[in-house]
Amino acid sequence: MTTLSTGRRPARRRGGSAPFVLVAPAVVLLVTFLLVPIGYTVYLSLRAARVTGGGLGRRVEQFVGLENYRGVLTDSAYLDGVVRMLGYGAVVVPVMLGLALLFALLLDTPRVRLTRTTRIGIFLPYAVPGVIASLLWGFMYLPSVSPIRAVLESVNLPAPDFLGPSTVFFSIANIGVWGGVGFNMIVLFTALRGIPGEMYDAARVDGASEIQIALRVKIPLIAPALVMTGIFSIIATLQVFSEPAVIQPLSDSIPSTWVPLMTIYRDAFVNSDIHTAAAASVVLALGTLALSIVVLTVLQRRAFRSDQ
Fold this sequence. Notes:
Elements lengths: L17 H28 L1 E6 L5 E6 L3 H7 L2 H32 L7 H13 L2 H12 L5 H8 L13 H26 L3 H9 L4 H12 L1 H16 L3 H6 L12 H11 L3 H30 L5
Antiparallel strand pairs: 1-2
Helix pairs in contact: 1-13, 2-13, 3-7, 3-10, 4-7, 5-7, 7-10, 10-13, 12-13
């Protein structure tokens, strides 16, 4: 009598190398365009150019450790730019997200008409490149051609100097708000459209007004979208460059170190000091990462905390 084997066959591996082949292009792009540039920037930040020999000498690179970082962290112009950048973000991010949330809530109201046209009109500034938007607003600020000043002067009202020392900060912040509201509004509006309508109906049956529904139903339910747009907006404001760089030739109130990225650009391409610029870039990147983590942690605790 033969005994039948009851052992199970080993499971066959399926897929083989297919997953690795599919992931390979993304890995190659990640390494080539992110990890390698970051590593090379860190490498440059640890070195410096020195002139050796007599006479005109010879320019050579040497390892200097953290010397470039000490120079960056003690550079008053760079630190002033960091403070100015943080102030810029403190103004732009709340105003931009506040307007985006307000527009999204208004467009999600049942009584609003022409929502598609209105959405396109609000989103359109985001489609304009930052340099072009800065040029457009720059001409609107320039006293000799500003239509805003012309309208105010025609009705005998005082026309402000948009490019003056006390106003240029808010003029640049206005460009950032104008260009960023549309994208955030679309994200928040999309999140609102994903909320089941039955929740609104139940709130209306309980006697809630549209304002109460917005404050007590809609906003809490789109908290994840608010956190995401908040983080993206903070990162964008920490990378502000094109707006002040474009406005700078129009105003004497914007130095070449107005924000950290302008200082980095000056060091790298004007002063040809690529090593100091690399160190300043690493400091800015680490600061952006740290601030993003802190803000994300705080917002997550408030937006996603469980009911106790």
